[in-house]
Amino acid sequence: MIDKLDLLSKEELKELVRIYAKNIYALDGVWFQSVEEKNGMDEAMLHDKNAWIKFARTEAKRIKNFLSLPDMAGLEGLEKALAIRFSALSNPSVSLFREGDSLIYRINECRVQSARKSKGMPFHPCASVGFIEHDGFARVIDERIVTEMISCYPDITDRECACCWKFTLKQS
Hints:
Layout: H1 10-39, H2 41-67, H3 74-84, H4 86-90, E1 93-99, E2 102-109, H5 111-118, H6 127-141, E3 145-152, E4 163-169
Antiparallel strand pairs: 1-2, 2-4, 3-4
């Protein structure tokens, strides 16, 4: 039997990966909005936090394995992993750069907030869930990594981006 993926070009495979990354956000939004509509934002946020605790760890483990990263991969490993996680591949504009002894991950334009805005919905209050997601992902890559939220709705401190996260390797 022929694997259908073998029939696709490199460019087609790259586009398919981006489509699947967008699909993850779409699925996340669909279930979240269903709970939000029926039971309100607080209930939806409770389930969102629980889902991201598990999903972030699963995603990080799979990417860590894919990249053959060591257990203590440091900021170098995190940088490689963040660059290919679904949010980096699906959001319209993401920046990943070093700033001193830290790694900065900025989502300049967020697919989730843009979709909610286009539907006339209030922004998703993602700061608490975002912390769970980013910290959980980073700590799987290297348990010594400390995550700090720089800016994320509703705690916006940088109007130039949708959200911004800072990762630093804890000194022992």
